[in-house]
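pipeline stage [seq->struct] | target=Pseudouridine synthase | organism=Aureibacillus halotolerans | residues=242
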Amino acid sequence: MERLQKVIAHAGVASRRKAEELILEGKVTVNGEVIKTLGTKVSTNDRVEVNGVPMEREEPVYFLFYKPREVITSVSDEKNRKVVIDYFETVRQRVYPIGRLDYHTSGLLLLTNDGTFANMLMHPKYEIEKTYVAKVEGIIKKGDLLKLEKGVHLEDGQTAPATARVISRDTERKTSIVELSIHEGKNRQVRRMFEALGFNVIKLKRERYGFLDLRGVMPGDFRELTPHEVKKLRELAVTQPS
C-alpha cells in the first residue's frame, strides 16, 4: 500500500505537490470514488483516475548503483549539486533511492519505483546487513573492535551489535582500514561509531547490501537487479528477526 499522491507522482502524471492539489480539488478517483483526503493509501489492484483518465502504472524496476563520492542521495538538490538520479537519465521510470549514503560516502545503493519494496527494505524491523569498508586515522586495536561489535553509545542511542575486522594497518602513516557490518540505518552511523571511539573517517564505502556486492560495477554505473535477486531480497527481509 502506498500514499495516493506518491503513486500519482511515480506514474509520471504530476509532481508530488501537484498530485496533492489534484486530490484536494476532487479530481482524483479510486475505484470510482472521489478522494479528497491526503495520505489515502492504495494498492496495485485499485483503479486510479486523474481528471477522468485512468492512470497507467509503471512497471516496477530495481537497480543496483555504485554511488561515487560527493553525490547527493536524492532525486534533487536545492544547491544544484549532483544527485544520484542524474545517473539514471536513460531510465524511463521515475526511480528513487532506497535509504541513504551521505555525500562523502561511496558504494552500493539500491533504487526502485516500487514503494512497497522500498519500505520493506528500509523498515527497522527487517535489519538487512550492510557492510562498509572505512579508512580511519589512527591504529585500530582489538579493544576498539570489541567496542564496535558490542555497540557504541551515540547521541540518538546505543548501536546494535555489529561485526568488525581489521583489513590492514599502516603504522607509518598511522591509519587503519576496517570492515564493519551493521544492521541498522541511523544517520551517518558508521562515521559516528568510529568518531565516538576517537577515530576520524578518511574514506568510507558501502561494499555489500545483504548478499549483493559491487563486482562488475564501476563508480557511477548501475545494473538492473535480476528477478531472482529481487525475490531473494524480499525473502531476506521477511526472515530477519524483528
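stage status: PASS
auto-comment: The domain at 62-125+212-238 is CATH 3.30.70.580 (Alpha-Beta Plaits). The chain has three domains: 2-54, 62-125+212-238, 129-209.
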